[in-house]
Amino acid sequence: MWIGLIGMLWAVLAVAHPMPESRVWIDTTPSGLRLTLQLPLNRLEYGFGQPLADLPGTVLARHSEALSRYLLRHVAVRSYGRSWQASPPQLTVVGTNASAELEAVMDLRAPDGAGRRAPALVYDAITHEVRTHRVQVFLRSDWAGGFANKPPLLLGELSHGHDRLPVPLEPARTGASVLRLLQEGSLHIAEGTDHLLFLLMLLVVAPLAASGHRWSRVRPVRQALRHTALVVTAFTVGHTITLVLGSLGLVSVPTRPVEVAVAATIAVAAWHAWRPLFARAEAWMALGFGCIHGMAFSASLSGAGLTPWQHAQALLAFNLGIEAMQLAAVVVVMPALLVLVRTQPARSATLRRGVSAIVGALALAWLIERLGLASLGALSSIADGWPVLALIPGLLWLAALVGGSGRRLRVTASED
């Protein structure tokens, strides 16, 4: 009976206090694999045979070489019956308390003809001694197979008596990750209604020039196109700067303040479209606000597990995808705006104010929700979907076509 009670108590304690697990993060490299191991010191000391958890700060000074030899004995990769060559791991202790971990980075090189795309992880660090220990294994990046900038994929779990796990990799394809990141960048801006609405507010007033606090004259076509190119380029430069800095981890801002700031930029841009606030500084406005939008973009691009060269390619591809979608938006909207401001100036002004009011209302709804002041689910669902993005350009083109047709009819009637 006592044995049963003790067993039940042990089970309850195990549920209440889950055992720390090890984790293995797998990244492919041109020559093989890079493994990043995270091993809790309070479990590693049982497998290693020496006390480690009491003084985490002295672990490497006391046991660095012995720990390297231990990991080389208990961690391996094989394919087609052949072992891969492992380099000595780079060791770091993370944390200073009872939950401190040893982080080890190991590069493994596949021998010629050993099947670089069909590896199997052979691993029994800690588990060869601690029967209750579990090791979670994740694929973090596979550049050649197109698995980049994705959430890590859980491949499986290793434990005592289960020390082998195949690592399924897609066939290597030239440019697979670059193409995927191009698509991701374009989809990110296409699905980012807030970013496109900000760009729309820049474009709506691009054919116009201000005097005082009014949009008072229409720019000549060439001047309007040059001004559009300047403003869009400034926005691009701004968001590229912070996209790079944020993705590299050089600038880090919590997501919520960034999203609040993005909503605020749209509200300001909508007010500017109604009545000029930055009449002589639109490019500077686009540059500064672009920096804010770039921080939002950077949250969608992670360089985890990538080499510096792969990360550079990822940044370039993702940003080119964003620029391609922005250019598509300019091509769709600008011809209608250029026609409308020339053929129907009064209707153009009314439509501009109406669009800026709609966008301003949506921006304020985002701002209220992102500040946590209220939940405006219905309005947010409208703002977060394609209908708004399709409706506004559709109205612009409809007005432009109606205006152009009316003008042609008046010219024909006067000739008759």
From TrEMBL:
Keywords: Membrane, Transmembrane, Transmembrane helix. This is Putative membrane protein. It comes from Ralstonia solanacearum (Pseudomonas solanacearum). InterPro entries: Put_HupE_UreJ. The chain crosses the membrane at residues 196-216, 228-251, 257-274, 286-304, 324-343, 355-379, 385-404.
